[in-house]
Amino acid sequence: MSTEIAISHVSRAFGGHTVLNDVSLTVKPGELLALLGPSGSGKTTLLRLIAGLDQPDRGKINIGDLDATARHPKERGVGFVFQHYALFRHMTVFENIAFSLRIRKVPKAEVKTRVAALLKLIQLETLASRYPAQLSGGQRQRVALARALASQPRVLLLDEPFGALDAVVRRDLRRWLRQLHDEMHITTIFVTHDQEEAFDLADRVVIMNAGKICQQGTPIDIYQHPTSIFVHEFLGESNHIPSRVHNGTVIAQAGFYLGEAAAPEGPVQTFIRPHHVIPRPNPRGAWSITRIAATGAHARISVTNTGTTLQAAMTADALLDSSLTPGQQVDIFFSGGTIFTEAKPGPTKLTPLKPTSAIHAIS
Amino acid sequence: MVKNILIGIALAFMGLFLVMPLLVVFTEAFSAGIADYFTAITDPNVGSAITLTLIIALVVVPANLIFGICASWCIARFNFIGRDLLITLIDLPFSISPVIAGLLEVLLFGLNGLFGTWLANHNIQIIFALPGMILATIFVTFPFVAREIIPLAQEQGNDEEEAAVTLGASGLQIFFRVSLPKLRWGLFYGVLLCNARAMGEFGAVSVVSGKIFGSTDTLSLAVESLYESYEIQAAFACASLLAMLALVTLILKSALEWWHRDEIHAVRRKKAA
Questions:
Q1: Which residues of A touch B273 (CB under 8 A)?
Q2: Residue A133 touches partner B, C-beta closer than 8 Å
Q3: From B202's CA, which of A22, A73, A241, B30 has a CA 20 to 30 Å away?
Q4: Using the beta-carbon criterion (under 8 Å), do A86 and B160 form an inter-chain contact?
Q5: How do beta strands A344-349 and A308-315 pair?
Q6: ipTM surpassing 0.95, yes or no?
């Protein structure tokens, strides 16, 4: 029932500026896939190419058995949800949802039952006769979704679907969409620049940068094993420490010892997530705590040593147990990290000093 | 207190400059009684003026409607060389005196004009005839529809059309179901203004018409002709017809706004948000 999308070697340039550069991607039937990347990475362009709102300069797009590359959007069977909803302002909620059915000359009685079912699905039965301007952002987004689903598309495409909503509505709508997808199993691609959103919602995440796919995989896989500096830095905070490898030992440029790694001799870039940085009280320690910020479940600790500042993170509970206070002298231990070097492609694991069990890190 | 004074000044001003002249028009028109009023407006020459005015409006309004839609379509949708120039040119008739506009027509199509000889050889008469009056009126009322809908089309952008594409609509379906309806209020106001101006136009038409009473006189030209021949009451009777046109336009506008108040209210709220 569900449809596969196969994109092969697709390129697109606008006025000499390459936006997509030889992108290939397969979306499995019934999958919920996130296209994640900074603005200008080409993710929205890719989505528009799949929908048929734009044509690729080179390459092929297959939707199911259909070579969709040169097909009109009408023939592709896609539903598209726009970032700013793009609801028809002169039509009521009912007429907005009914639009694709009216275009297809579906009998009136059937239009009525199908729109009623969709209104029930988006829980807006009572607002059928309202105009889009009379709805809240979250309601508009749900109407846009119902409108896209009305023609029973094989593929659902969402462009920054929650971008214009406030945080609470965004979280609720996200869970609702996931639930909806689990019920309908329609192949879905959504574009976002929000890493949390992508990881929370998607079965698989595709990370894009500068018109290319950098990495794809399950959220946990990508977070644990970023294959490039870009992906590592894009996915949440990390301490970037310029360092060098000597006899398999990794030492920061600033002089402190980081751990061991199977990397060639020479300069390397070390990345350590804040939760892998563990401060331990020691009156003669070389580091001092400059700031502690508790943000709900997690606490963020800044430690500094002659010009180098590192960010550490732990659970709020662990912070209470540790009795760390601002101004205190500490030692720093590392419980993990990743090394990138020009001499060798891909990441190298940093093996830190043992043991660091006295203080619990978030893992 | 200050509020009441300001409202008072505004009302007094409106009364003096808008209501009073209107009252004068009607009192003068009916000064010799209702019977004379109807004699005046059923005069064959006045009848021909009314017909001519209606014909001109009937040609000019649709012409400028189509032009306005085309112009707003390309200005809002595409970014082309000469786009800014086109926007400026659309405003040109606003900044040129209608008399000059009429004179330009004469210079182009008159007997000694640029195309005069060619037109004369082909037996086509533009100046001192209906075609010239229509052209002059089109020129003068050129910006009304376009000016009303271009900003609207620019503000609304292209999103809804794209959404319609993804929902399977064809080009024509998009135009008639999305593009046109979403501009309909702008179109409506534009048409009303254009119509009022087309029927009331004096300067440009007076230059090209030749003012042959009973033949190439429009209603507003008839007012002048009658006034100049000291038929004051008849002149005001004609003027009252034009005034009534203005009133009907206003009532029509208010009625439609009231009829669609929900939708208009909704759109306004969106704009404010």
A1: 133
A2: yes
A3: B30
A4: yes
A5: unpaired
A6: no
